[in-house]
Amino acid sequence: MEIANRLPQLIENHQLRAQVNEMPLLNCRFLTGYREWRLARLVLSFITMGYVWQEGETQPKEILPRNLALPFVEVSRNLGLPPILVHSDLVLVNWATRNPGGPLEIRNLDTIVSFPGGESLRGFILVTVLVEKAAAPGIKALVQAVNAISQPSPDSLFQALQQLRVSIQDMTGALGQMHDYVDPDIFYAVIRIFLSGWKDNPALPVGLVYEGVSKEPLSYSGGSAAQSTILHAFDEFLGVRHSKQSADFLHRMRDYMPPSHRAFIEEICVAPSVRAHILSSGNGQLLTAFNQCVESLAALRTYHLALVTKYLITAASKAKAQGTSHLPRPPRAPEASGTGGTAIMSFLKSVRDKTLEARLHPSA
């Protein structure tokens, strides 16, 4: 905790690796209850990313020392997560309210653990928290809709579809706050590196050796919004079918989710099909409400595409042109990859286009 509380300063002053090397080997048996395991995992995942990437992507550490690797792997196994920072660490568990009785708004929130990146990093994490919060009524709507099909109750299903649409629109609205709180140059040159993984990453081509865990290097993808359960659940519910390449990547990202979240997606997969139910019902009102959900989801993805263009593609070109002062040199092929290691623009466009293909057409 002492290291985690000073993480940005330790990284900026190039002192984190030395501090970690002096750390005692921590024993997980003193952790009691889920919250402590989750906090241990949060702290160890952040320290790991800082340790590997302290000197930027030109000089990554290829070996994680045993006093960090052993407890991190043990905590991760206990929680059913891979030993690398994932979306649920960076976002889902990494916030606290300043005034516990106050509203869940950005001015009343703070991160628990941080990297370099100052206010932009805080904004990046907390805006994403607010997107997840906006999705909560949508997740509840999926449950209501599935129950409405088995009853069957057309009114309840219609209400659930409307709630889902509003929730998706609210997510897009929340995502818009990125522009207010996150500086693209800082995101690109400072923050992005700490979210990078060691799978399909030329900076660590064979992966990372977890000392005391495995003699062979292990490869894991970096943090990615594709590790959020929300859009996976919405896609399954609406029957969105992605291209094989996109679907393979998205399915792999499910291994980076908490087990209970993966299980929720599976439940939606095996539930009765809302598409089939609406088509066979011939109910025009339900069909319209369903299509509005699909269109709202495609609009959210179009908006996300514009954000990625601003924060990755445009910022990358700018960094190349300027030879950014924050980094020893611009990283290889920055336009190509998101932090999860996907060829990002073609992937996001395909995912958006396939979303629109899920619209229902009334059977003649």
Polypeptide structure, described:
- This protein has 364 residues and is mostly helical.
- The chain has 16 helices and four strands.
- 60% of the residues lie in helices and 3% in strands.
- The strands form two sheets. The chain has a two-stranded parallel sheet with strand order 1-4. It has a two-stranded antiparallel sheet with strand order 2-3.
- Helix 7 (118-150) runs antiparallel to helix 8 (154-175).
- Catalyzes the first and rate limiting step of the catabolism of tryptophan along the kynurenine pathway. Involved in immune regulation.
- Its EC number is 1.13.11.-.
- InterPro entries: Indolamine_dOase (IPR000898), Trp/Indoleamine_2_3_dOase-like (IPR037217).
Count of extended strands: 4
Category by helix and strand content: mainly alpha
Our count of helices gives 16
DSSP strand content: under 5%
Biggest sheet features? 2 strands, parallel
Q: On the 0-100 scale, what is the average pLDDT? A: 93
Unreliable stretches (pLDDT < 50, length at least 5) are 325-336
Report the C-alpha radius of gyration, rounded.
Answer: 21 Å
The portion of residues assigned to helices is 55-70%
* H/E topology pattern: HHHHEHHEEHHHHEHHHHHH
